[in-house]
Design a protein that fits this description.
about 270 residues; alpha+beta; 5-stranded antiparallel β-sheet; DNA-binding; Homeodomain-like_sf
Length: about 270
């Protein structure tokens, strides 16, 4: 059987693959993280492009989808500087996205994944990947006309090391000071690194990680809000509920009900449009 040159995977599938160590013989060297704001407000949507990055080193998000592909899938005439100039690892993140467009792409990629070895499917994914690469280039050139896309630098390495530590320790440690001390840098340096690389402050990243874990537990378990609060290291349930509403504009129970009603609503919307 011919080896696939691309796949579309959820964060949980990435997690499973990493645990099972199934990546070694796969040719993927371009990875797009497609993240949609789960509340549907759209202000947190982003795409992250990872080039020449080992998948097990990515701080994967269980709420994201990942398009992983072989660089050779692209057309030879694809003239994109970042693909040509460097074989070093690089990670580039862009915001200000059209949520409906990304949602459409995810749906189409999921459909195409059923035919991932077909010629037509390859052509579709090639076009999507090239559009996404061009979008990344245009976004960066528009916002930073004087800045070239450089490989991962000290700030990038520091920022992604911070992300890994937060994901491992956020239940116990929620202060920026703790992580800065463990990384051997000042809070100011850590803040510069995360804002330069991830466009987010260290405190915001800790809060975002906490919120996303809470969302996952609310959606995929039947644990009570009190149990989830305790698991996340927040002793007072009221404090957790207040924090969650501040981050999402709805309460934990409202979020759980919304996510469990969503498949029915999407199905109904699809039927109504036919």
């Amino acid at each position: 059987m011919e080896m696939n040159t691309w796949e579309i995977l959820s964060g949980e599938q990435i997690h499973t693959r990493i645990l099972n160590k199934e990546w070694r013989n796969l040719p993927y060297n371009i990875i797009f993280e497609l993240y949609l704001d789960p509340i549907g407000l759209g202000h947190d949507d982003y795409i992250t492009l990872f080039l020449n990055w080992q998948i097990e080193h990515i701080a994967y998000n269980s709420l994201s989808y990942y398009l992983v592909l072989d660089k050779n899938l692209l057309r030879p005439e694809t003239d994109i500087d970042i693909l040509i100039d460097s074989e070093q690892p690089a990670a580039i993140k862009i915001h200000d996205l059209d949520q409906s467009y990304i949602f459409y792409l995810i749906k189409m990629l999921l459909k195409s994944s059923e035919l991932s070895v077909s010629k037509l499917s390859r052509q579709f994914v090639r076009n999507v990947a090239e559009q996404l690469l061009l979008s990344v280039m245009i976004n960066r050139i528009t916002k930073e006309p004087e800045t070239k896309l450089n490989p991962v630098n000290r700030y990038s390495l520091l920022a992604f090391d911070f992300v890994d530590r937060v994901k491992a320790c956020f239940q116990k440690h929620k202060s920026v000071h703790y992580y800065a001390k463990k990384l051997g840098v000042t809070e100011k340096t850590l803040s510069k690194a995360t804002q330069a690389t991830l466009k987010i402050t260290p405190k915001e990243l800790i809060q975002k990680t906490l919120t996303e874990k809470a969302m996952t537990l609310l959606e995929h378990t039947d644990k009570s809000v009190k149990e989830i609060s305790y698991e996340l290291g927040i002793k007072e349930t009221n404090n957790f509920s207040t924090f969650f509403k501040k981050m999402t504009n709805i309460t934990p129970l409202e979020y759980r009900n919304l996510k469990r009603q969503l498949p029915t609503l999407l199905k109904k919307g699809s039927q109504d449009s036919q």
